[in-house]
């Protein structure tokens, strides 16, 4: 992962936008899997863990706070655009996808994309040699552990969301290991 870097270039921003579009299409198609199964493949993009993991990876790969913010926005906006556009396009041909373009939700998640960009801009400062950087490291890890606990409780009661639970656990453990090595005491 250290060889892959997001830079403040048109090429890098285009690549992350295209990745966002592809991920949005995959998430839209996964959304049509049944939600009430053990694995619940339709759930990953509906909970915060997926967003935290992908945006944390973007921040880790970025070369500046501006790059982190712009890349996060482009990824999330590309994902949002393709998620809702794919439903509208497929809905013209396949009844299962009917419902048209959900403009209200598109605007809502575009605003969330801006919020993610601001968070990524701030989180990039974890690269500075300061005690405050340790607090920034703990934010995505703490949020993932909190969601892991909530999803685990839900999993015990309903026997669903196993995929989300495993993704959150793996993300939290991997980020804990990576960030623990970087903590400033």
Annotate the secondary structure layout:
Elements: H1 10-30, H2 48-61, H3 65-91, H4 103-123, H5 131-158, H6 162-180
Helix pairs in contact: 1-3, 2-3, 2-4, 2-5, 3-4, 5-6
Biggest sheet architecture = none
Number of beta strands = 0
Q: Structural class given helices, strands, pairing?
A: mainly alpha
Q: Which percent band covers the strand fraction?
A: under 5%
Give the count of helical stretches. Answer: 6
The outline comes out as globular
Average pLDDT, all residues: 92
Helix content: over 70%
Order of helices and strands: HHHHHH
What Rg do the Cα atoms give?
A: 17 Å
What is the CA–CA distance across the termini? 25 Å
Model regions low in confidence, pLDDT < 50 over at least 5 residues: none
Key descriptive features of the protein:
mainly alpha, globular, single chain, 185 residues
Fold and architecture overview:
- The two termini are 25 Å apart.
- Helix 1 (10-30) packs across helix 3.
- The chain has helices at 10-30, 48-61, 65-91, 103-123, 131-158, 162-180.
- The model has no long low-confidence stretch (mean pLDDT 92).
- It is globular, with a radius of gyration of 17 Å.
- The longest helix is centred in the C-terminal third of the chain and has 28 residues, at 131-158.
- It has a domain at 10-130.
- The chain has six helices and no strands.
- By secondary structure, the protein is an all-alpha fold.
- Helices cover 70% and strands 0% of the residues.
Provide a short characterization of the protein structure.
70% of the residues lie in helices and 0% in strands.
